[in-house]
What we know:
The complex is a heterodimer of chains A (168) and B (335).
Chain A: H1 2-34, E1 43-45, E2 48-50, E3 66-71, E4 78-83, E5 87-94, E6 97-105, H2 122-129, E7 134-136, E8 139-144, E9 147-153, E10 159-166
Antiparallel strand pairs in A: 1-2, 3-4, 4-5, 5-6, 6-10, 7-8, 8-9, 9-10
Chain B: H1 2-24, H2 37-40, E1 50-54, H3 56-59, H4 64-71, E2 75-79, H5 85-98, E3 103-107, H6 119-126, H7 133-142, H8 150-153, H9 156-159, H10 168-172, H11 210-225, E4 229-234, H12 244-256, E5 260-263, H13 268-271, H14 288-305, H15 315-334
Parallel strand pairs in B: 1-2, 1-3, 3-4, 4-5
Amino acid sequence: MQRITKFLLIFILIIGFTTSCGQKEESKNNNNNNQDVSSGYALKYDNMTITPGDVFTKDKFGEYEDYIELESCAFEDKDRAYTYEHFEISTYTKDKQEHILSVYFLDPEVTTTEGVALGDDKSKMLEAYGDGYTNNDSEYEYQKDKSILIFILNDEDIITSIEYRYDI
Amino acid sequence: MKYLNRILIITLFIIVFIFLNRLVTPKYTESLEEGSMTNAYYKETTNHDVIFIGDCEVYANISPLVMYENYGITSYVRGNSSQDIWQSYYLLKETLKYEIPKVVVLNITSMKNSKPDSEPYNRLMLDYMRWSKEKVAMINASMTEEENILAYLFPILRYHSRITELKKEDIIYLFQNKITTHNGFLINEKVKPAGSLPAKRVLASYDFADSNYDYLDKIVKLCKENNIKLILMKAPSLYPYWYDEYNTQIINYARTNNLDYYNFIDLVNEIGIDFQTDTYDGGLHLNLNGATKLSKYFGNILKEKYNLTDYRNDDIINNVYKKKLKAYYEAIERK
């Protein structure tokens, strides 16, 4: 009888332990999500600083040209994208607030804070950011804290895509 | 007496534990109906000639009851939100334990996803899947880094916090889930016209992952072994973008493996789909109107080209489908 009680108690403790571990993990992740914002790569454009992970407010970066809202397959969260003259800002929702998920360059009229634009070649990227990238196919990622700057190059080593992204 | 007490305590513990697990698991009835799709299949009483497998692009776009009403084709959609190719494989494997259809139609949008999407989507699909070696294999293939198979075995590990947030549906559907789909089709009659879409991004690579091809190969093999005609389809949608490079890979794969492939994006005009009226989310999925058009169009192809039986002359099947059609139109009426 005592053995059974012991077994049941141990079982309940294991369940409780696993459960509380999950909660701690969740709260740890939440804390992580709150730190490092504003300390990574950010786009400086027209006297504004656009930092992945920062709270996004509609009037913060002037008037956008287009707004796109796409629902997810099942859940209530939505993908939102704001199109400005030279880039597109995508957002995600956390704690009922919109945060900047990515800034995607639409044309060569805008440059990264360090002066790299679409159409530049690989050497300009290396000159500005060095060789501390991670590379997958033709994609080059530079990460500073939770902010990732991503370049995609074509076969001629010309930059065809630039994106700032928040590492959720 | 001592022995009896032990048995009693253990039995009581097991009953309470099972009850708690069941109580806290979401019922996917009043909200998140997408979580009830895997389970609904087990309630089917007759076999199907066609099984549609894939993600939301099948359960939103293909209405088996429209196909039955117009062509007498019996079919079922085994689709879930964000269903990945490895999940489609294991779900097909599970399906073949219950029935061997003549045709399997696989929506191939998920070939572009190489990693598990997210834990909440896994739960929608897996929470009410019956335990089998296919389910275990699917969990192992689908888990994100933070997940643990124990949380699937004992849902209370995952949903314990719901104990204070239980809703009425958690009690009403404690022992019996409500069927919210119609042969796997989820009715959505809303209209949200297509407008602007996000920029079409340049990708570093357009190649599907090798692991996805492995699962596609497995699906092909499974169908061959069971003498099933496999058809590949891409549902009509405006977004997420179905790049030409994706399409070319599927065309080549279909040619190599002697499969038919229907890319309905190229056929929207012929089908009569108007993304101003036939979509509920701006061009990602078709609404009821759009799904009806596509199902009539595709049903005709299936009937003509694959020589499927018209069951409208079969009294037993027709009686089952008469009831299904009645429930279908009543559900549409209620929406």
